[in-house]
Amino acid sequence: MFENASTRRSFLRHSSIAGAALFTPFTFAQQKLEEKEKGEKEKGENDEKISPAEDLMREHGVLNRILLIYDEHLRMLHEKKPFDGSVLVSAADVVRRFVEDYHEKLEEDFLFPRFRKAGKLVKLVDTLQIQHKAGRDLTARIRELAGTASLKYVSSDTDKLTDALRSFLRMYRPHEAREDTVLFPAFRSIVSDHEYDSLGEDFEKKEDQLFGDEGFFKVVDQVAQLEKRLGIYDLAQFTPK
Ligand SMILES: [Fe+2]
Ligand SMILES: [Fe+2]
After folding, report:
1. 103 CA from centroid of ligand 2 (Å)
2. What residues sit around ligand 1, an ion, with C-beta below 5 angstroms?
3. CA distances from 81 to 72, 76, 89, 148, 149 (A)
4. Which residues contact 197 (CB under 8 A, 6 or more apart)?
5. Considering Cα of 142, then 144, then 146, then 149, what sign does the dihedral take?
6. Ligand 1 centroid, distance to 155 Cα (angstroms)
């Protein structure tokens, strides 16, 4: 009769309000219990500890959304469509503050030295570190080029910007995919359970210090605002018709 438990609960709740005959002490107590459980669950979800790998991977999710913003700008550049550079400036600022100064710093301070000490994946770690540096140079270029003009496709700067965006996308997609599938899974095996857990807490604390309480969600919201300005926020538009 009911598609799922929440539909059933919703029916019970509404029917208990609608009909006095159904509003028995049992349904009232059940309703209170469900509300309490829901509140505790929501609280628990917010306070939930997340592992270092999950933390780093969801940060890659933010980076991926920036890459989509960069993709959209490449499309406009290709179509010679004038655009306001301020969205790109803001996106590059999120890359600088969140991806480079925070996420990559965590990788460089907490992961890379442990891999080097353990003598594992050292060549990969060296490449990743070189790419972080190359990424910073590209971000500086993107930031500067996006900030200097309203990009009406009149100057050679637009070609330079196209090159910088392409290079950034070309490097970061394989970079983060390799970290997600090789580096982060291997990290679990080179640290103790205790160290792994406490690093997760350290990462969260650092995130909140830099970006405020529940800082990750604030950054996600900033990126969503940029997507809205570009018209790429609505996910359903990407479903094939
Ligand atoms: Fe990285
Ligand atoms: Fe990363």
Report:
1. 6
2. 107, 128
3. 11, 5, 17, 17, 14
4. 49, 51
5. negative
6. 33
Distance CA 173, CA 111 (A): 20
Cα(177)–Cα(169) distance, integer angstroms: 12
Q: Looking at beta carbons, which pairs linking 113-121 to residues 24 or more positions away fall under 8 Å?
A: 114/187, 114/190, 114/191, 115/183, 115/186, 115/187, 115/190, 118/190, 120/186, 120/190, 121/182, 121/183, 121/186
Q: 149 or 218, which is more confident? A: 218
Which pLDDT band, with edges at 50, 70 and 90, does 35 fall under?
Answer: low
Give one DSSP letter per residue of 186-235, joined into a string: HHHHHS-HHHHHHHHHHHHHHHHHHH-TTHHHHHHHHHHHHHHHHT---G
The single-letter code of the amino acid at 134 is: A
Instruction: Identify the CA nearest to 185 among candidates 227, 235, 135, 124.
Output: 124
Distance in Å, CA 164 to ligand 2 centroid? 19
What separation in angstroms does the CA of 2 have from each of 5, 6, 7, 9? 7, 9, 6, 9
pLDDT at 5 over 90: no
Model pLDDT for residues 185-208, shown as the tens digit of each residue: 999 999 999 999 999 999 988 888
Helix (H, G, I), strand (E, B) or coil at 48: coil
